[in-house]
């Protein structure tokens, strides 16, 4: 009934019989049961919901049977206990799959990060650091799993680079996940296929084209004015000058003023130390210093980017200073490629 309802096929005695025959279950379902089942459906209800309820009740009954078998196997000690555990796990996954059908949650967390939640197997698949190389879409794939007996570290089953454009990569990663999850009932190939298709579709679609005339004009506060400087709120700006001309001091003065206006601000620093900036902040604003979130950076920005994105997200920062662009470069700053 659930299968018929989801495909938009009318539900009656003939269609139900045909569906059961195609599933190879004709001998297991008496025609009288089908007749009573079909007669009990009012025409004005949501048939899909009715079918899902029948599947849920049947799944609960199956779970109880498998749990009873597990209990008996544990008491008997005849060596069937591992098989009984696998049977119960399979019934649990099937029950979750039916009860959460259509509820896979796919989210775009940031521009290069997506998450697919699979509640029926207690797992989350997340890709981060999306990038194109040789016309293929690569990412870091993190799989978290709560299945009993899974070989996970802190709830993470696996985390490694992954080629979303490669069918072979999906098959190989599915084998790895199956071996670490320790469950034969989970179709990891289907899970990875769904993730890859959703991510590839989202990346191809991107942001929709719009009529430029329908967009809102920039708000009056789109630029932040501080001591004669006009800083764009949604775009990068550069303070340029020779060494020793107080650029870092001026940047800290700007951040302090923004913080006094209620903004969440951060300072990502490749040059000095936190103690130096703390001393300067007090010299600028006195003992009642505004809050400036500080992070010391030791490596080029290409390596620090992930950490800084997390800080921005966790600290809810609205504006940040990167001090300085030259020291953040991964190579000679005068090189166009760098």
Topology overview:
Blueprint: H1 2-6, H2 13-22, H3 31-39, H4 47-76, H5 81-99, E1 105-110, E2 113-118, E3 123-133, E4 136-145, E5 156-163, H6 167-181, H7 188-205, E6 223-226, E7 229-232, H8 247-260, E8 265-269, H9 274-285, E9 293-296, H10 301-315, E10 319-323, H11 325-328
Parallel strand pairs: 8-9, 8-10
Antiparallel strand pairs: 1-2, 2-3, 3-4, 4-5, 6-7
Describe the structure.
This protein is α+β, with helices and mostly antiparallel strands and 338 residues long. It contains eleven helices and ten strands. It has a five-stranded antiparallel β-sheet, with helices on one face. Strands 9-8-10 form a three-stranded parallel β-sheet, sandwiched between helices. Strands 6-7 form a two-stranded antiparallel ribbon. Helix 4 (47-76) packs antiparallel against helix 5 (81-99), helix 6 packs across helix 7 (188-205) and helix 8 packs across helix 9. The chain is elongated and about 90 Å long. It starts with a helix and ends in a 10-residue tail after the last helix. The relative contact order is 0.06. The model has no long low-confidence stretch (mean pLDDT 87).
